[in-house]
Amino acid sequence: MNKTRIALIGGGPSALSILKKALSFFSEQLVDSESSDGETSDAKSSHGRASPHLSFDIFERNTALGKGMPYSKDGASWEHITNVSSDELAPFDETLLEWLRQQSPEYLAKHHISKENLHEKHVVPRLLFGDYLEAQFSELIGKCRTAGILVNVHLQCNVLDIKPSAGDGNSLERKNSPERENSSELINSPEPQDGDSHAGTNILTDSGWVTGFDNVVVCTGHIWPKIHEGKVKGYFDSPYPPTKLQRKYNHTIALKGSSLTAIDAIRTLSEANGEFYQTENQLQYRLFDEVPNFKIIMHSLEGLLPNIRFHLDDPLVSDEGMLSEQEIAQHRADNDGFLSLDFIFEHNFKRALKQLDADFYQKIANKNIEAFCQWMLESRKAYEPFTLFKIEYLQAEQSIKQENTLQWKEAIALLSFTINHPAKYFSAEDTLRLRNHLLPLIGLMIANIPQSSAAQLLALHNSGVLDIIAVDSSSHLGIEGDCDFHFYYKDSDNKPVVNTYKTFIDCTGQKSLPIDAFPFKSMFEDAEPLVAKVRFKDKHQGKHHLKENPKSVCIGSDDEYYLETGGFAINDDFQPILANGSLNERYFVMAVPYISGFNPDYSGFDFCDQVAELIVTKLGKSKK
Q1: How many CB atoms lie within 10 A of CB 416?
Q2: Fewest CB atoms within 10 A around its CB: which of 9, 35, 425, 572?
Q3: Model pTM?
Q4: Separation between Cα atoms, residue 97 and residue 145, nearest integer Å
């Protein structure tokens, strides 16, 4: 019997989550099948166990699986630390802590870790964490093969295009679909032609075609396009890979943003231009003699700095106790198909806080989203940014030592998680409210930078090397030429200010990318994909926004006004919706830059775990 063949484009944490869920899901299906029907000889694999008739081909452009961008040299150097600990990860058979305890003292010492001090709250260097993920991927592949799930791995393999076979009807009948352990045997086949016998979908790599897949999951992870970088000297579109920043700068460097991406840049730049040292009371920093003018200035909306890791009572993010799918469906049925942002805010944030922290709840009980965000910003702006940062550093330190959570911060993380998946059902009005008010606050509050990063930021600020400027949404950069950048903003008195810099680094994080930037052009050659967009509830609002921003608002064939949110329109199973309203059921897209129009909070292992379960469940249902 032919196996159902699935291609995973990208071999990072998303692919790891897919494979983990597939093994779990199909193993359970086999157990259920065996217990009810018995095991027949036709259904047995070569290992003697029932086979789920499933295979995966994993295409990864780098030399190792599991690491992705954040945990490889593409996104980290030795100085970068994870912001998750062992107990915050959806469990593998071997936890991070268990794996660390099995490593040699010499190996851990290379990463400045003492084996005697390991614990489940330990945050580790990102490159070390990447080694852990690689080890889990290898172990998982072995278990899949034992269970009868064939896994072919294509390392150092660039995928150039994805092309459906002509006239493909999702048939499983293939003349050229051998089940081979050696994936290289599947490569170097000629380009599929019209009328070719390869049914399904074909993958073009830099070594040739791999043909006959039934489903493709695009999980290519982070993408950092270069717009000005390489054309304008001194301009960096992102701080990745960090090696490009590892040199001495005897001048002030401007960073746009202040969240996790900015912290990565700061750690790289500070290590290259000076050194940290510990005194009896605190961490301190001194510049190298040859760079006396080195300085970093962050430009942050409202002057906000990111949140610092604290103790979590519930380290694994879950939607347990939140609005159920049935409640959301009923609410939408009663509201013309829309999900109200206020409804989510009341039930998944305020109602949770009422149980968790009654005192904090009383302070916000009568506030809507706008009032809550304004209250939060005003309370934070009452302090100089680094003064507040020092206060929150001490609070987080006490939270960890005493194992007491900060309930309202934990509730915000939960709110962000539960908003993400149903965000496609918000009206355009609510989507704009979410983007303009709640997401900027959430983005900083769930950053959870490690204690060591916070200590370094304080040391840099105390030494006069790091500062922050509060800007508003109207601030912008003028590029006059090589190493000549002018940052325009308004000060606290609303007076225009311009600062000039020789080096500028965009640290605003992963940006949404349009469908036009999607690299696999042939995926949709037979049917155009639908751009993600949400309908205005009030036509008058839609008409107003069309006049104000015609590039982002359009009128649909139903004469309704829509806000284009960017990237692919996808359904709840992460399958792309076509322009004619139908689904392309052979594809799944969890490539974060191309789905953020419908999934505004897409970072972290909780996202990978949740989406992988949805995709694998859908695959399982379709193969019955």
Answers
A1: 24
A2: 35
A3: 0.89
A4: 26
